[in-house]
Amino acid sequence: MRALFAIFILFFFVSMTFSEETTQKNIIFIEKSEEKSRVLQSPMQPNSLDTRTTEQEKKKRLSLEKPKIEPLGKVIEKKISEAVVIKNAWKLYEEGDFYRASEKFQSLLNSQNRDIALSARLGLAYSLKNLGKNDEAIEQFGVLYGENYKIQEVTASIIELLISKGEFDKAENYALKYCLKIYEFYENAKKLRAMNENSKAKQRLLNLLQCTQNDLDLRVAILYELSTLLEYEDMVKLLEAEGKNENLQYLTKIKSLEADLHRKKLSLTDIKSPLVLDLANRILKVYPEDRVALSTMAWHYYNVKEYEKSLDLFLSLSKKYPQEEEYILGAAYCYNALGRDDDLISLVEKSSIKSEKLNLIKAEAYIRKADRKLSENHLSEAYSTVRKLATSTDPVSKKIAGQWYCKRGLPVLASHVDSLSQDTCYYREQFPQLEAGFSYRFKSGDEGLSKLKEIKIPLSLHYPLEEGRKLSFTILQKYVNSGTLGENPYVGKYYEYLNGIAQKNSPITSKWLFQPEFKYEIEGYPQINLSLGTTPINATVSAMPLFSLGVDYKSFWVNLHQISIEESILSIQGQKDPYSNERWGRVLKTGIQGGVNINLKDSYWLAISGDFGYIWGENIWENYSLEGSLSFGKTFIIDEKNELDIGVFYVIKHFRRNSNFFTFGHGGYFSPQFFNMVGPTFRYKIKDCCGIGFDIKASLGYIYYRADSSPHYPLFSDNKALFNSSAQSDIEGKYEEERKSKFGGSVEVKFRQNLTKTITIYGFGKTNISGGYNEWSAGAGMIYFFLP
């Protein structure tokens, strides 16, 4: 009885010892199992983790399963010894002495006690892992995996080791089987996508879905990643399947993802495609007030020219979101397309949003209104409309107004309105300018009389004022030369010479002359040009004032003037009679001009003008002139800068008296009693900035004129009886009538070129063979702008 009791105590001691030895503080508790081991197929490489049963292994397993019968005492002694060893091995492991622990674990791998052998192999695997011997550790974990020992713990370790080696594909096989470490594979899929390995990332994410049935937050995250990888239709099907889930919170997230998917597809769809409406409506089923869907629908309707539908949506959105510029801008575009400029302007001006885009579209609406008023010949309303922009505080409106003024040929006004835009061609027009020029003119005629060679050297200072006003001062130096005259020329009171009076002086045939001139210009509506000056201050005949006042109003223009007739030295500055020392000449024309330019349909135009002048001077036979012209043609707009005008013209002139002579009382200027010319006219111009960079005009026509006979001395008032017969014959004589018909014409060329920001050059050339003489001239000049 005592022997049996001793044996019982001994077995109890061994059992308790083994139980204590197999306890691990940092490792999952090693469970004992009396069940028969099952060999599972490992997902590891066959060579390293192959658990297929060989004959030798079968014998070994049989030996484990059916150990040889040994004496009881020896068995007890061996168990006690192995239990002590395994306890010490785990103690060493827990103390961090992995190397010694691995040796002890290694010694127990072939223990006939299955639990001790598997526990030792697990300890060995962990020790090898901590020693950095991952390949050997994986091999040991693989054996345990094949023995189905602590399968969750072992599989997790295998996955961790494979991930550390970067062998995600192998690790994934284990992870998916037991749904372990799913988040690590989710992060790996994100990295794959970042490296553009989209195919691998997509498949990994799809595989992970089978392990996230209970982790819905991670499942949603996986679906979001998939939405960037799957084709649209495939993703739609996947989300439709997810919609069967009964978790309301999860379904809300799925609906949100589905809406995002449709939004993404919407952003990639051609705005004109009918698919836009389908996608937008899908989004609106989930979120009826979705701004992206509604605004995209609005832009779709706008692009397919259903402006009313688009306008309704944009106005609705702008009321809900008054601070969103896009919706105000969209509504403004719709108003623009519908031609409702007043509504557009009202919408933008009432909005609290101030932006460059809105200011631009509003300014363009103002310009369209102004252009319509111009086309209707309502110039006052057109200019007042643009003035609203010009007086605005925002720079965009000022710039648009400046550009409009520039196109109307008003550079000074443009520069004052848009004074900050240094990149514009008219910016410099607001600053003072110095201009210098040179020109030469030749006119055919009789040597010393009607013939004329003229050199002009003007020097001008231009000073722009506010609101498109400019003040100019010019000093003109002019040299005139008519050639040489012989002794006793037939000029002045030649009858005195015939009456026996000797020549007292020589007629002036060349001279330098000086003329001052002030100009004041007002650009805009109406456009006003005022000039004040004198005839040459050092002329033979005393100087007289000159003036010109021009006003452009609507299509009409008018000019009041007193100007010099510059056809000979006699008409320009007068002469001193070589036989009596009396002075005569310096011919002036005081009169009025006016005209109307009418724009017809299809770029046709009609121009009518008229001129009346009273002609007078020092001891000059008074005269008057009438002139009228009519032209009709069409403008061909080649492109934005190039234009061609082709038309026909007719000109008629009349002078009361023929005074184209150089005896005393005559003025020395072409003055036929009847003149007309008819023919074609051409003009080609290239616009540059606010004016014309290149301009060529030509006209050719048939000319007929008649100059009546005229007395030699129209102002003679002395007693003829006091003169001899030769003198009386000359006094009573008349110049013969002249009639002529011929072909004539004129050509004029001008150009202007900006060399730098501060320097502009210009030039011109002109020839005229349409009068009783031939004439040509050419010149060039330079303007310097004093920029700050």
Structure description:
The relative contact order is 0.04. The chain has 26 helices and 19 strands. It is rod-shaped. With 788 residues, it is α+β, with helices and mostly antiparallel strands. It has a 16-stranded antiparallel barrel with strand order 1-2-3-4-5-6-7-9-10-11-12-13-14-17-18-19. The protein has a two-stranded antiparallel ribbon with strand order 15-16. The model is unreliable at 1-67 (pLDDT under 50).
Summarize the structure.
The chain is of the alpha+beta class.
- Put simply, the count of helices is 26
Percent helix range: 40-55%
Taken from the alpha-carbon principal axes, the silhouette is rod-shaped
Mean pLDDT: 87
The N- and C-terminal alpha carbons lie at a distance of 127 Å
Features:
788 residues; alpha+beta; two-stranded antiparallel sheet; 41% helix; 27% strand
Blueprint (SSEs and pairs):
Layout: H1 2-21, H2 46-49, H3 55-65, H4 72-94, H5 98-107, H6 114-130, H7 134-146, H8 151-164, H9 168-178, H10 182-194, H11 198-208, H12 216-226, H13 232-242, H14 248-268, H15 275-286, H16 291-303, H17 307-320, H18 325-337, H19 341-350, H20 356-375, H21 379-390, H22 395-407, H23 411-417, E1 433-443, E2 452-464, E3 469-481, H24 494-498, E4 510-522, E5 527-534, E6 545-553, E7 556-564, H25 569-573, E8 575-576, E9 583-599, E10 604-618, E11 623-637, E12 642-655, E13 674-688, E14 691-707, E15 710-711, H26 725-732, E16 734-735, E17 738-754, E18 759-768, E19 775-785
Antiparallel strand pairs: 1-2, 1-19, 2-3, 3-4, 4-5, 5-6, 6-7, 7-9, 8-9, 9-10, 10-11, 11-12, 12-13, 13-14, 14-17, 15-16, 17-18, 18-19
